[in-house]
Specification:
With 287 residues, the chain is an alpha/beta fold. It contains 11 helices and 10 strands. Strand 4, helix 5 and strand 5 form a beta-alpha-beta unit. GO terms for molecular function: endonuclease activity.
Length: 287
């Protein structure tokens, strides 16, 4: 698994992109998921780009932003063009967005059709800019569960539209993540990894709370210490370890949590690969 940290984890820290990149490289991350507002605010510093990041053995795996699926289509297209320019600068091929701000069960057929048309328009413009548009599976959107996500992907029907598979949010929807993975696998281009102490605490990930400097962080826990069994999920997708994934940490003690989660993930995949190789070799001997 090619693991990135998210610059949004440092949204309330007084750190530069140089600080973050140097720390990521030192602790063996392979990439950085760049928050859209951070990418925009770095425009005035052209020395920071894909070449600079590559010197530190890093890449921008995804630019995470928020494109409107209602209102002015031209404004949304203008923003896609701007994000396309930023993606080119950073050598990035994915722009993350959400499928609106209403749960799938609260959308009328006409609203669904209008959002699908908007997403097609945005995906087409993304393709023209050489990037893919990646929808995040997330509560209170048209991609809040596997069935709704598949329906939307079918309605849009554009090859540049893909999925950012947020494991916890699909678990939040009452699904078994490994089954959701199998159903969405053809569309998955990125994975978000985070965990929670119990389902009762999931409201801490509500956007209004997450983005607030004084927001509640209770219940946010390291990846392998929460209610969602990541050991079992990762074992089920081990053969897809080449995919990009981001540790999406919103809580305190950012450096120590990210470092420890990364270390445990690398240990898991090393052990998984060793076991897979041993099984393969044993099969060859028996055969």
């Amino acid at each position: 698994m090619k693991l990135s940290l998210c610059t949004i984890s440092f949204r309330h820290h007084l750190l530069s992109i140089s600080d973050i990149a140097q720390w990521a490289q030192r602790h063996q991350f392979q990439g950085i998921e760049l928050w859209g507002v951070h990418a925009t605010n770095l425009e005035a510093q052209p020395q920071f780009n894909a070449s600079w990041l590559a010197e530190q053995q890093l890449k921008v795996s995804m630019i995470s932003d928020y494109l409107s699926v209602t209102g002015s289509a031209q404004a949304a297209l203008d923003k896609v063009d701007k994000l396309g320019e930023l993606a080119f600068r950073w050598g990035c091929k994915k722009i993350r967005t959400f499928a609106g701000h209403k749960p799938s069960q609260a959308i009328t057929p006409d609203e669904h059709h209008a959002i699908a048309e908007r997403l097609y328009l945005l995906a087409e413009r993304c393709a023209q800019n050489g990037v893919n548009l990646v929808l995040e599976t997330h509560p209170n959107t048209l991609a809040d569960n596997t069935h709704a996500t598949l329906q939307l992907l079918k309605a849009v029907d554009h090859p540049a539209l893909a999925v950012n598979f947020d494991v916890l949010h699909l678990w939040e929807a009452g699904e078994q993540p490994h089954i959701a993975w199998q159903q969405l696998k053809p569309y998955i281009q990125h994975i978000h990894l985070k965990n929670i102490s119990s389902a009762a605490m999931l409201n801490v990930f509500a956007p209004a709370n997450v983005y607030a400097a004084a927001g509640n962080r209770e219940g946010m826990v390291p990846l392998f210490e929460g209610a969602l069994d990541y050991q079992a999920f990762l074992e089920s997708i081990g053969q897809h370890a080449e995919l990009d994934a981001s540790l999406e940490w919103f809580g305190p003690n950012v450096h120590s949590v990210l470092q420890n989660d990364n270390r445990q993930l690398q240990r898991f995949f090393t052990s998984y690969q060793h076991a897979a190789n041993s099984a393969h070799n044993e099969k060859l001997v028996v055969g």
